[in-house]
Specification:
1 helix, three-stranded antiparallel beta sheet, mainly beta, two-stranded antiparallel sheet, single chain
Length: 70
Amino acid sequence: MATIKVSIVHDEVGNVVSVTRPAEGASIVPLGGDGQSVLETEIDENAIEGLASGKQRVDTVNKEIVDNNP
């Protein structure tokens, strides 16, 4: 699969709120609410499912995607 650019809105502990995949060439400004941040990164297209299903989260310290091991 292809690597794609995504914006991941997450809370203070890294739980994913939303994942945005803009159209190629689009200029967007992803917004988070109170207590939320946005991580813009490139991931494998198959990884979106893991983020959306809660199997993965954002490591807020290292700014990377990690498995969600409770």
